Amino acid sequence: MNRTQLKRSSILRMALSGSETMDRDESRETFVFRAVRIAAVVALYWFVSITMVFLNNHLLDNKDLDAPLFVTFYQCVVTVVLCWLMQLLSKMCPRLIDFPSVRFDVKLSREVLPLSIVFIGMITFNNLCLKHLGVAFYTVGRSLSTVFNVLLSYVILKQTTSFRALACCGIILGGFWLGVDQEGMSGYLSWTGVFFGVLASACVSLNAIYTKKVMPALDGNIWKLSYYNNINACVLFLPLILVFGELGQLVKFSRLTDISFWGMMTLGGVFGFAIGYVTGLQIKYTSPLTHNVSGTAKACAQTVIAVVYNSSTKTLLWWTSNMMVLGGSSAYTWVKSLEMKKSPSTVTQDSAKETLLSGDKEDQGV
């Protein structure tokens, strides 16, 4: 009996040790899979975002066609077409593609209209800022979004901001003014670009505030918001293109029938649509805080790539201004994340959703 019991106990121990080994192997595989997936998603976000900025800079820097409103209008048209296409594909392959069913509703379009006006201002001023300042100084030129977010949240929503968050805004402001000073000393500063950058920053903040008000009418769905925003923008851009004389520019443009030109324009629209998807993907598999940190690091890499690509020489203070802007923005995100943890979960969810929306649209504007 003792031998039998010994055999049984030894077999049981072997089985248990074997199961523990299998669990450890599975946990290792799960961890590796998660790490690889997160790395792939972040890399995809960086690739789409950086490529989109350089692509749009190429389109807007066209010496033969000075029509930034038309370029932005065409990208909105591409976004609407892609929304329809994604909706069709989601019905054909529901297991592979998850996209909401969107049907045009005049009532909803009217509700979204005030936000769409702000949205038009945001993407137009973003593109004009990029056109006049270039990619290297774009991060600093568009750095006041956080400052305007604090200011307009107090003026419109009566929300106060902590001292630590205000200190972070002070660092961003200091970096902005130092950057403007250094860019001016180098002889490359465009005050027109700075002006458009400030307006774009204000519109980004207004966009986040109005988005929060409109989202309940759209069932909290980001793609429905994108669909209605871009449809309204397509209509509203038409009179602006006529008023600012861009139709005449298009008629005179020699490459109007060039397939490669329209290919680049369409590609810009595709990347504009894709940034919304990869932004949501990055937040889904990481967190809103990680998304903001990744966005800050991406902006730093984007600036370095632009300086190297253009073979530019920048002063130490110029680089310091960029680090102040990026460091202040990262610190603000960190402070707000700590404050959200102390708040009720509903507030945290709203803030996370707002972070996703504002980040998404901020990227789409470039």
Task: Please outline what is shown here.
By secondary structure, the chain is an all-alpha fold. It is built from 13 helices and no strands. Helix content is 83%, strand content 0%.
Strand content: under 5%
Radius of gyration: 24 Å
Mean pLDDT reading: 82
Distance between the termini: 79 Å
Number of helical regions: 13
Q: Helicity, in percent?
A: over 70%
What is the chain-wise order of helices and strands?
Answer: HHHHHHHHHHHHH
Uncertain regions spanning at least 5 consecutive residues: 345-362
Query: Major β-sheet, in short?
Result: none
β-strand number: 0
Describe the structure.
The chain is mostly helical. It is 83% helix and 0% strand. The chain has 13 helices and no strands. It has helices at residues 2-60, 68-92, 106-133, 138-141, 145-157, 163-186, 191-214, 222-243, 246-252, 259-285, 288-309, 316-342, 345-364. Mean pLDDT is 82; it is low at 345-362.
List the helices and strands and how they pair.
Blueprint (H helix, E strand, L loop, with lengths): L1 H59 L7 H25 L13 H28 L4 H4 L3 H13 L5 H24 L4 H24 L7 H22 L2 H7 L6 H27 L2 H22 L6 H27 L2 H20 L2
Helix pairs in contact: 1-3, 1-10, 1-11, 2-8, 2-10, 3-7, 3-8, 5-7, 6-12, 7-13, 10-11, 10-13, 11-12
Keywords:
mainly alpha, single chain, 366 residues, globular, 13 helices
